[in-house]
């Protein structure tokens, strides 16, 4: 298992995890459903919605297998979707981060299941700029594609 603890600037209330060579643009994928569920995705890219338009804490774990069952009690929202890795690297960055400087993580090519857990979304102050919200992302390699799953709404 590898773990990364990051602070990402969630400009436009989002950050991304993508294959390094993905050319997909999520503009048209941020539908009302995607905004409500705080997740949009296309070929090689996932957009993760945030409660704040500021720096947010993000924990990313690359796992060897699917994590143990969890009742998700400590989270407000949990989603799962797939990410195809074709370049051997993923990039994790804020929406407006300078892409060449963004963190790159080497991964074996293949299909990864990505579980996004959103916590303390209701802790924002009256300005919407300060809060204790946090985001945990778990990734593991899988053999088959699966549909988007809203595990906790």
From TrEMBL:
InterPro entries, A to Z: ComJ_sf
Gene3D superfamilies per record: Competence, DNA-entry nuclease inhibitor, ComJ (2.60.34.30)
Name of the featured protein: Uncharacterized protein
Organism name: Chishuiella changwenlii
Origin organism lineage: Bacteria, Pseudomonadati, Bacteroidota, Flavobacteriia, Flavobacteriales
